[in-house]
Amino acid sequence: MNGLREKIQQDLISALKEKREFDLSVLRMLAAAFQNKEKEKRFNLTKEKPDLKEEELIQQSQLSDEEIVKVISSEIKKRRKTIPDYERGRRQDLVDKEQKEIEILNEYLPEETHD
Q1: CA-to-CA separations, 77 to 66, 72, 83, 85, 99, in angstroms, rounded
Q2: Which pLDDT tens digit goes with each residue over 55-105?
Q3: Would residue 115 count as lying in a domain?
Q4: Which of 42, 77, 101, 103 would bridge 61 by S-S if both were Cys, CB 3.0 to 4.6 A apart?
């Protein structure tokens, strides 16, 4: 596992131990997004290289730090897109929730990629 992913995993465990429910749900969602991206990558690899062994397939489908940053950025973008809809629907509770999720996700982006 690479550095950024390890940090997120450690933060997920500490959020679980410290009973920080909101942080835990955001980090679990992020872990699921990583897993989905790896599955997609593994599927594409099996098409390109059908003779790969299982171990090689798993190793090659692991996400790099760059890919992890892209997944996090994508999750932030999704939330930013939904905020105007919630504002139009006068759902300030959901606007606040999305903004708080964005803050948590931004903690894992390198400084130069913050908006």
Answers
A1: 16, 9, 10, 14, 11
A2: 888 888 889 999 999 999 999 999 999 999 999 999 999 999 999 999 999
A3: no
A4: 42
